[in-house]
Design brief:
Number of helices: 2
Order of helices and strands: HH
Radius of gyration: 14 Å
Number of strands: 0
Structural class: mainly alpha
């Protein structure tokens, strides 16, 4: 059950962080992600987690 739940948890978490990243880009006064060094690797991580989660969900549905 955990194997089936993990991609969904990762996808939800990545979407939440992606929303925070977008909000930080449009309103820097919020200071969700205050360091520039953190923003680019974080965005790459989010994209990779989103891709991985979608692929795993599709794979699990085919089974």
């Amino acid at each position: 059950m955990f194997k089936k739940l993990l991609p969904h948890i990762c996808l939800d978490t990545a979407v939440i962080f992606l929303v925070l990243w977008v909000l930080d880009r449009f309103n820097e006064a919020m200071h969700f992600l205050s360091r520039d060094v953190f923003k680019i690797p974080f965005a790459v991580f989010l994209v990779l987690v989103l891709i991985e989660s979608v692929i795993l969900i599709i794979y699990q549905r085919k089974e």
